[in-house]
Amino acid sequence: xxxxxxxxxxxxxxxxxxxxxxxxxxxxxxxxxxxxxxxxxxxxxxxxxxxxxxxxxxxxxxxxxxxxxxxxxxxxxxxxxxxxxxxxxxxxxxxxxxxxxxxxxxxxxxxxxxxxxxxxxxxxxxxxxxxxxxxxxxxxxxxxxxxxxxxxxxxxxxxxxxxxxxxxxxxxxxxxxxxxxxxxxxxxxxxxxxxxxxxxxxxxxxxxxxxxxxxxxxxxxxxxxxxx
Length: 228
Known about the structure:
- The chain is mainly alpha-helical.
- It has a domain at 2-58.
- 46% of the residues lie in helices and 9% in strands.
- The protein is built from eight helices and four strands; from the N terminus they run H-E-H-E-H-H-H-H-H-E-H-E.
- Mean pLDDT is 74; it is low at 113-130 and 136-144.
């Protein structure tokens, strides 16, 4: 968390961000001492000479909503469908671009403006090597192969992770929807390559509804103390 507090402080040294107010939110569980957590963090910031408003947000224990369950189910169904379709590299990029386009269209429908550059996905343009590849006839699996998608039940671990992402997003949007910049701890990437698709979906849910987000994750060697 030290790097996460230091970055906005450094940004405020620039004239563009100098007039901005810095707020630090820390999440506490019901069993935590929220008052003591706030005092300790304010004491730490005082010695670092960082001026910021400290707020402790208590995450209430709640049941998993139908939206969370449905979002997880859609994520797993899409991943399974892409595996069954055996999409090539170029086709996979097109599928990702479609998701980005749908996301921006949904945002535009809420009255927000976006430029054509915002809709473009970096790397979506086919390379020369891909253009040189001979066109292969697209082979889709029989319709019956997709029938098992309706029988998929979301993995319990994915449901819990999605629930955490949804609840954190609700708090961030509620507290910092109008913020010029939101800095968030970047969750650790999955150790197994098979979870890459789900990891990106969790990040999408975590930052949904926020205009400008900077996600930070240290390398584990950074040390920020009041004695440095």
